[in-house]
Amino acid sequence: MSKKFKYIPKDKRKKILLICDDIRVHSGVATVAKEIVVHTSNHFNWSQIAGAIKHPEKGKVLDLSSETNKMAGIDDTYVKLFPVDGYGNEQILRDIIKVEKPDAIMLFTDPRYFDFVFRMEAEIRKTCPIIYLNIWDDLPAPMYNSAFYEACDLLLGISKQTVNINKLVLKDKEKNRLFRYLPHGKNENIYYPLTQEEKSTKEFKDFKKSLFKNKTPKFISFFNSRNIRRKQIPDTLLAFREFLYSLPKEEAKDCYLVLHTEAVTDHGTDLYKVREFLFGEDFEDQIIFSHQKYDDKVLNWLYNIADVQILITSNEGWGLTLTEAILSGTPIIANTTGGMQDQMRFVDNNGEWFTPDANVPSNHRGTYKEHGEWAFPVYPASRSIQGSPPTPYIFDDRCKWEDVTERLKEVYSIDKDELKARGLKGREWAIGNEAGFTSGHQAERFVSAVNELFDTWVPREKYEIVNANEYKGKFLNHKIIY
Fold first, then answer.
1. Spacing of C-alpha 423 from chain mean position
2. Does the global pTM surpass 0.90?
3. Which residues does 115 contact at the CB level (< 8 Å), separation at least 6?
């Protein structure tokens, strides 16, 4: 719980009704939502329409106040869950609003999942505002999202790119709306650089010995994310293969890539087969699969064991595993796209941390090359527009695996002490006030933005007159070459 904003007794707090993944599960959305709930529970009361595909507790009402009290360090939190299939529907939302009487409704994930909420916005916003913690992976600005964004009173953008996209889409309709930057934050006391004493414990040594089958690695790359197509895991493997083949064979035998992911999924591929095809008998042992669901303690061990964390996703709103790696003091190799750009701290021509605008809405073209010492960026070699009927156009930023190989060589060539020093500079920046990629900073920014909303919010008019003849289409409103 953050202590930098005022404690408010339970009976005096505003209540927020959150709609997203059940905060008890381990999705990225649920993890971040839980951090916000716990760290602001001394300032707001919380109810949640707790979503899951087929929720085993559907229809129950769960009081999590006691568990939250322990995590928050106070004794009067209010956290109540209403488990549902999906994210509910109009009737469920109306029933819960009637019972809980929230002061605001907060949404968090892709807007298409909340279509039923946006259809009700005129009804909802007569009595309470809608907050949307949102993200958009890439350009061009999604004008097809305009109705969703327009239905919200406070748009919290997870990445700088998202904040810019929100403003670009609502260019003529910004009035009476708040736009704020709210990057993801994790607990820096859970993800942190291990001390030598901690590395000397039998528990840690046994874990490392088991992971590498009693071998002593010289260089370790780490991947921690889902096995889905946009994560480009086969390209990561191909890049690592060529890195190994650039070394003398015996030296390469001391280098490993640890993949903490599902080995086979319908949404991704069969990584066992990819490993067999690319590495054969020569270097098959250099690819280690980690299937178990580990707690935060063991995940922090894995980040600390690694020399570098790799994530070359072609579309990535944020990349939470990069945040965890940076907080752990581990350097990163990442594709320059989406919110991953924020975490590499690119510097613009004025010497400032790059903030996208209509002229340079992304750095995925490599407009700026200066960045934080902990980052080893790869720039997309292909930016092709993909789409589907619900999302007609979006760039797919694909980097070349050959470029990833070059970054691996670069990291490998750096002295271990210097590499660690670079990682520690990344942590120092991440926990500081400029980046603020911690749970505490996230909570403070959230409280500040929501309090401002409550201070300035004006209920929606009973009706609105729209001149349908004024519609002239939704066109590209930012540079496409920069």
1. 20
2. yes
3. none
